[in-house]
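DM from R.C. (forwarded with permission)

"hey, sorry to bug you on a friday — could you get me a structure for this? deadline for the figure draft is monday and I only need the backbone to look sensible"
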Amino acid sequence: MMHRTLTRSLRRRAMRCARGFLLMELALALVIIGGLAAMLIPLFAMQGKLDSARQDVLSLQQARDALVSYANIGFGLPAPIRFLEGTSGSYTVASHVDLSATLEALGLGRPGALPGAVLGVPTVSPLQTAYWYDAQPALRNDKATAFYPAVALSDGVWSFKTIADQFDPDQNTTMSTGGVRAQMCRNLNSLLDIEQKIRVNPSATETGYLRDHINVTLPRIWTKGYEGNFEWSPALGYATTATATTDAVFENSSAAAFVVVRRLPPSQRRLDRMNAVYNVVGTTGMDPALADRGLVYPNFLAGIRGFRVYENPLTPASDNAAADTQDYDGRVQAVSLNEFSSSLHQAGMCTAPAESCKANQLFVRFVNYVNSAPLSGSAQGMTLRWELMNRDPTTSAYTLLQSGDVSSGTNSSGACLDTFNTDVLTAPRTRYLRVSFISPAGSVGYADGNGAGYWYRGGVLVDPTYSARSTAADDGVTRWRNLDALAAVNAGLTVTVTCTGSHTLLGSNELNRSGAAKPTCTVAQVP
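My reply, with the result:
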């Protein structure tokens, strides 16, 4: 009996010890698991952030490549898409993620959402913000806005607008490539030329290409390392800098064909350093509605938005310990004008002679089959001389700009000729083209001193008269081509001046202005 009682007592004591031991093990295990969780959760969060960053980099690179490929096929860039607009409190704002129900294409010069559906790439980033997209308007391929030269009527006289106005969407609503290969090349050549001419002319001394002409080369990308000059301004809603003079902006940035930006959610907008777009609406962190954005190109660093110069794609994220206003966590991808040009050349585009011209030029070649008609003796072939002239509107004096000789029985290789000048702020001067024949005596044209001039044909190369834009030109009697010649659908075609026949000579072997035989010169604009 005593033995049984003792056995039961020992068993109960052993069970109590076992329960205590298990509870201690469980508590220790929970402590260890908690410690591991405390270490792993931040690692998982960091891994998630790294995955998101990698996806951002991949998506932006895909967008970049898709846009270049699209331009190679469609001869221009697609339009940005309008964001869905709604209300936030008492404000009307544009969404940072949702697009308009109709995927409305924005007008020339307006940045918006990346057209992912067209490009076959993501439209929304891992942070649930739509990728921002800004394209050079002159490189967009909208057919409805295909390039047509901007002209103005003053005191009954038509003239071309300045080159800055030609590429300003607020001044010329028809400036895109129109999906025409040659016009894409011509517009790109003009933009590169404008960029170069502004670069060599400081605004303090140059009255031709002022630095504020960089409006026509937006969007732009800051030089790497210049970002340290910027601070986020809560009042303005974009990053700004005290040193942002016209020269400083130009010298520390370069023109881009397009820019794609991964933006952060509105509450973190300052980390985007979006000095490039619009100020926020109130405290919402959202962009204003389209109707509230004003002109595409307001005065330099004025209006309701910051200047459209974006961060350099190589700019790293930064967390400034001294000032939150200088923090940056954005991500950018872009293609410069020079890179865009290289990609087109690699694809075999912009290599044809007519594609080397600028938007204000025509590719012109001359065909000469003119012989002399002497009073006695044998006929001889006569050399044709063409001359591109500038006419001073005040003095009516002509200045020679370009010229060339074409032997009888030959064709010239052709040249890009300005139809109007692009180097002054005032109304551009229309160019004049003269055609003469060199007589057997060696004189260029008529040597009789007649007030009608020495040339055989001489008129404006392209008549800027808008009201006569579709009227046939008169083969150089007063004008060689009408305004339609510079339209995107025509401008890439070669203008061929063909002169045939013979010209009566005087006894001195000079050209006889009143002779019976005169050459026939005709003009055609064909591929």
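R.C.: lifesaver. The two ends are 123 Å apart (CA to CA).
me: no worries. The first helix runs from residue 2 to 74.
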